[in-house]
Amino acid sequence: MKFTKLILVALLIHSITSCANQKSTIDMHDNENSLDWQGSYSGTLPCEDCEGIYTTLQLKGNQTYILTTTYLGGENETAIENGEFDWKEDGKTLVLMGEEGKENNLYQVLENKILKLDAEGEKNVDTQSANYTLHKLGSQFTDTYWKLIEFQGQKITNEMATHEVYIQFNTLDNQVIGNGGCNNFYGNYMNNQPSEIKLNDIVITEMTCVKPGIENKLMQVLNSIDNYSIENGILSLSKAKMATEAKFEAKLKP
Fold it and tell me: Which residues form the signal peptide (predicted)?
């Protein structure tokens, strides 16, 4: 009888320990602990009375954030907000507390992206959820500020251009914009298949350039490339999957 009681006690202890371990395992597999959420996210969110809200959100390891919003169209007004954020009990949703410590915005954290939720913490259903998604910097080629770091095998230096050379592909209107080092350029792009891209109707301003640098050659390359790849935050553009013509690094938009 005494032996039987000892067995029952041992089984009870084992059961309690197993449950505790299981709970610990579940808790550690929420997005807060299992995903690499630290970093910068960007995208263009819907706007009722403007062309869109270009948004960047920097999430830091000390649970502080920097939120930058630019209302596109008109005067392109920009606002910058700093504050702290906290995690909801589900371990998947974070809330921006705002400068006055009030709950401001809710976001669901996913792999390499975050989804802006409504005031009740639910997905926005008035339009596609993709329109409310901010992607992690360097994880996708659209809605990202790409700075040129290498062109036809040559590293880019400040002496090569008057302005920073960059390119950006906007999903809102399928427009590509950028600067070749002196002049601004813009046009359209098509991305019908993964890793495929085609630029069309590229137009460039005609300012007199002190440092013409690689601008003319870059325009020729942009009109000829047909595919891209992204690895470790580096965008590579090439033609017919041959040697890479240009490499760009993902950066926060100045």
Answer: 1-20
